[in-house]
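Quick one, tokens below:
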């Protein structure tokens, strides 16, 4: 089959198509209100990207339980109090011609104790002080992910993405190093992945037929094992209950950390899997149109743009020039403010080495 072009539409088994192959990566930005309500700053940041041509605009990680908060100023989806802002956001994203998606998240043992006095985890974790969830609490966590998807649907989003990556609570369940449970959510990889599949099944069962579901996985770090995550990805693709799988690879060009799997790209372990009607995307230093096109040629259906989307709200429009390269780093605070970042977001980006010019 011919390699798709970056500006070819991408259809899904459910819901609207993306008008191109550019998805805005879910980016932490610390801009919303302490209670999780949408702020004007976060609204501006996201809608500017939708107007900038992204085929799908995804929110930052939005916590599904108050005790799942992972960052100050994090967008919430755990209360009906959030519906007014989320409805305004979804409406504006779609009005700009972009598919609107909300990412659902729970930080688990990565919740800062100044925000969450008693973090929770699949198993007791002395290092962070997080306590193990009871079986009933795991069941409630599944329900709260599904309830968050119901709110996203009520707000008018086209779909949700389940955040199972980067060492947050669902990735903690997937990790054999962190998850030492002895109930049905622990032990074998099938049991450790059970919570992910229950959330997907709950959303697919409870929401309208054309509601989109995505899943984000990362295959390394945080106690994850590449062959296990590949098996989870294979099974979720085989079942075909999601619309897209988003593999966060840190760097799309890298080889695996695991010595037994070196010699080829980390990405290739996922692009080679049978995917049926599920679309596969990759994230990790896709910083230019040329790299994005290479990823499609290497077997991805779409790419997620993070850092380059911070630098250029209209990255997809600029990408029509295949020679376009993002503004070199570091950039000034004024430059980032002109690209729709609030002072809080600019200071957060200042924590990324070499991103923001010294004041």
């Amino acid at each position: 089959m011919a390699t798709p072009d970056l500006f070819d539409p991408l259809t899904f088994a459910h819901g609207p198509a993306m008008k191109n192959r550019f998805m805005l990566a879910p980016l932490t930005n610390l801009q919303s209100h302490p209670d999780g309500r949408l702020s004007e700053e976060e609204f501006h940041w996201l809608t500017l990207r939708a107007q900038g041509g992204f085929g799908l605009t995804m929110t930052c990680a939005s916590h599904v339980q108050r005790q799942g908060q992972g960052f100050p100023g994090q967008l919430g989806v755990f209360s009906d109090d959030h519906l007014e802002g989320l409805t305004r956001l979804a409406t504006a994203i779609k009005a700009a011609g972009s598919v609107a998606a909300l990412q659902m998240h729970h930080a688990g043992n990565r919740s800062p104790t100044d925000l969450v006095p008693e973090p929770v985890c699949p198993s007791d974790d002395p290092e962070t002080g997080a306590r193990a969830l009871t079986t009933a609490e795991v069941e409630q966590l599944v329900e709260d992910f599904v309830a968050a998807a119901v709110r996203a649907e009520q707000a008018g989003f086209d779909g949700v993405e389940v955040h199972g990556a980067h060492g947050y609570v669902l990735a903690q369940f997937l990790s054999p190093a962190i998850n030492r449970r002895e109930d049905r959510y622990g032990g074998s990889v099938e049991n450790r992945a059970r919570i992910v599949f229950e959330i997907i099944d709950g959303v697919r069962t409870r929401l309208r037929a054309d509601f989109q579901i995505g899943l984000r996985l990362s295959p390394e770090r945080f106690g994850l094992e590449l062959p296990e995550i590949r098996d989870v990805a294979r099974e979720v693709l085989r079942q075909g209950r999601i619309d897209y799988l988003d593999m966060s690879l840190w760097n799309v060009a890298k080889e695996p950390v695991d010595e037994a799997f070196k010699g080829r790209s980390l990405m290739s372990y996922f692009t080679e899997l049978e995917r049926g009607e599920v679309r596969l995307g990759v994230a990790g230093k896709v910083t230019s149109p040329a790299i994005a096109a290479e990823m499609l040629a290497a077997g991805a259906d779409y790419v997620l743009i993070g850092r380059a989307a911070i630098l250029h709200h209209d990255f997809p429009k600029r990408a029509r020039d295949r020679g376009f390269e993002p503004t070199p780093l570091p950039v000034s605070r004024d430059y980032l403010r002109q690209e729709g970042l609030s002072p809080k977001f600019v200071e957060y980006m200042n924590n990324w080495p070499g991103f923001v010019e010294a004041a």
